[in-house]
Amino acid sequence: MDSLRLIRSELAYWNDDKTKVELYEEFVRFIPVGDKAIDVKYGNIASCKRYIKELHITSKGSTEDGYYDIHYIPLIFENKDIAEYYYSFIAERTQQFADVSETDRETKKKKNDNPIYTIPSTMGFTEGVLYIFEDHFSFRVSGQGENARLHYMDVNDVVKSFGSIRFIYGRNETMTFQIPKAVFAEIFKYLDNRIKHMHVHEKDDVSEYDRFTRTGKGAGVNDMVIAESDAARGMTDDKKRMTISETGGLKRRGI
């Protein structure tokens, strides 16, 4: 089975934005006009419902390497025939992959260290992937640049502006991330609510050293970011793709 063979491509509206919707053997790809592609595996789809020429897709919330978790995707196609084709194809593949991967998915749900969201993002001019967890997020660069990590208890303020989210932390330090338009509202709502909840309901009495190693950019958090992102991508046991750096930190070949 060729998982990268394009089966069908059509334009649809995702809310008010034109989006190309592409069907592949193992995943469906959404490409909002002017934005990056978002891939969702059929095994991660919880439901797909059709209303004439509309499709409402909901994902389970689990993520894997390169497949960005979106919880709710409402689509409107040009006509009901296209919607029917997409519905039938996605429903069939969803059932097929659910039968195969149910055991693996249940195992993953028991792990508390899986990211809630995994999305493409940029910090300044640096491209990478943002892994959003229950109590922090990690930013893993795709090429050159600094990795970053931010624990929610270290956040002083969250500000949204023109597709970006800016976090103010520590002694007036900042991190700013560009978030894909299609998922911006959901990501901001989750982070804003989660940070406020933790500040109200949880105690934070860690040492200054621990605070330094859990939040920041570059060398201080590199090892944690690399370990977390590798674990999220299922690479912790793949010794061929890891090597020990001269400073003792983990470094992945090809990054």
Description:
With 255 residues, this protein is of the alpha+beta class. It has two domains: 8-109, PH-domain like; 117-252, Pleckstrin-homology domain (PH domain)/Phosphotyrosine-binding domain (PTB) (PH-domain like, Roll), CATH 2.30.29.30. It is built from four helices and 17 strands. The chain has helices spanning 80-109, 184-201, 208-214, 222-232, and strands at 8-14, 17-23, 27-32, 38-41, 45-51, 54-59, 72-77, 117-123, 126-132, 136-141, 148-151, 155-161, 164-169, 173-178, 216-217, 242-244, 250-252. The strands form three sheets. It has an eight-stranded antiparallel sheet, with helices on both faces. Strand 16 and strand 17 form a beta hairpin. The longest helix has 30 residues, at 80-109. The protein is elongated and about 60 Å long. The relative contact order is 0.11.
How is this structure best summarized?
The chain is an alpha+beta fold and 255 residues long.
Q: Describe the biggest sheet?
A: 8 strands, antiparallel
Mean pLDDT: 80
N→C terminal distance: 28 Å
**Cα-atom radius of gyration:** 19 Å
Number of domains: 2
Count every helix, treating DSSP H or I runs of 4 or more residues as helices. 4
Helical proportion, percent range: 25-40%
Helix-strand category: alpha+beta
Q: Could you state the CATH homologous superfamily of the largest domain? A: Pleckstrin-homology domain (PH domain)/Phosphotyrosine-binding domain (PTB)
Helix-strand pattern: EEEEEEEHEEEEEEEHHEHEE
Give the strand content: 35-45%
